[in-house]
Amino acid sequence: MKDDFVGVIRFDLHEVPTRVPPDSPLAPQWYRLEDKKGDRNEAFTDAWHSDAITPPDMSASAANHIRSKVYHSPRMGNPFWNEDLMFVAAEPFDEHLIITVEDRKGQGKEETLGKSSSDTEEEKKVKFASKLHARISLDGGYHVLNESTYYSSDLRPSMKQLWKSSIGVLELGILNADGLHPMKTRDGRGTADTFCVAKYCQKWVRTRTIIDSLSPKYNEQYTWEVYDPATVLTIGVFDNGHIAGNKDTKIGKVRIRISTLEAGRVYTHSYPLLVLQPSGLKKMGELHLAIRFSCTNMTNMMFLYGKPLLPKMHYSRPLSLMQTNTLRVHATNVLASRLSRAEPPLKKEVVEYMCDVDAHFWSMRRSKANFYRIISLLQSLIAIGKWFTDVCAWKNPVTTVLVHLLFVMLVCFPDLILPTVFLYMFLIGLWNYRYRPKNPPHMDTRISYADNTIPDELDEEFDTFPTTKGTDVVRRRYDRLRSIGAKVQSVLGDFAAQGERAQALLSWRDPRASVLFLTFCLFAAFVLYAIPFNVMALLAGFYTMRHPRFRSKYPSSPTNFFRRLPAKTDCLL
Q1: What is the pTM of this model?
Q2: Which sequence ranges are marked TM in the entry (predicted)?
Q3: Superfamily of domain 149-355
């Protein structure tokens, strides 16, 4: 008997991943076999290859995410859509792009007019009842985001030929975890079966699972090549539920931005593992890590700060926000499908937690956190405003006199204004060098506004989309959202009114106000032409910083004039 041909697998040698000796062995992956005709099938269901780290094949469930949308259109001879659709495709591109033309008969009734299946690797001619013109291409010039843009670990284009040379090496040592919270009960006592997952660039690593320990010691080391310092390394800790047939439970994660690390320095630090649950914020333990970023080309890294973050295609042919969000969902699904077929598999809940798939969902807590972040940014401007108010009020006469002298010097020598500003910022930066962070920043409960959140807001944050709560709960949350929206609406209306009053100065909506303003402009033009600018600047500065004895308790005339100008609020329904 002769040996029968079962199938063949082809690999591009330049696409074979490499492994640095400290890293763990590469996870085995599933591959589809090709027969003599080039068709791919599951002829050998137990085939696996131990030297592949990136899953090359897409499962049947993920195939739905590369199908075209169905466009409902009346039956006609030559329908014309002229739309560009983008999908996420994973190497080795062994799935088919399926285009279906359907005619909608009514509600829930569609008639299939035809179907076209196109291989992304080979061009095939398919007989069809009518012609369907489609342009299909694999574009590797974009970077497919499978994670939140705030925590991106990779910014390179999909095509490997467009990658730039690396600027350094990132070394991570996952040492141990302390004080972990029990995740399950075994033999009448609390315990946990934990493992760590680290994600950076296209490389995901997973430590071994430490069974039955609340203080596991991993002592594993991994390395990555760094191509951009504006990227984030994410390390997550999970409880292995595969042993009991359950889902893997999240214990916490740590994010470290590469740009916050000093080159060549070893950071050994314990990071808190915090998890936000419907019952509130909970500290699950601490993770001890050792990190070092070694820069191989300091010049290239400095030049990177002046280059665009994303590949050129994102700027020459930018994607819309809807396309970006759709591609992110598809990419996350493809990634979860691939990693779930690895050996050992990374489950979908692990991939979604590491990629922060819920970062764009509505959350009252996140809204408050972002609001107070803006307030924190404005604190410096508010402090400067209060200081200048005190100067104008002469609360400290010595400071006020010095400000007057500085003001006179800058007005008489305007060429010194910009050099003084930049020199002042330089001195502030040198002064703050003493207080620079000694360790990379970690999760901050105060900034996240996680320690002051009421239970109902947490319950709303963990609600599904669409909601599964009762009518009374949804009505209460809707009323609360309406009250917040009313305040935002009032603030936006005030901003719009101020801008409309400024437009009313020259629009003759109030004829008398326009006459007064035009008269003032004509008079100011002659005065500014006759009097040197330096003198006018000195007079304006001295008038602004005049002594309180020469001030009135009532609003100034320009303020009263501006508030009397009409806005379009009286035209609103």
Answers
A1: 0.73
A2: 371-389, 401-433, 515-543
A3: C2 domain (2.60.40.150)
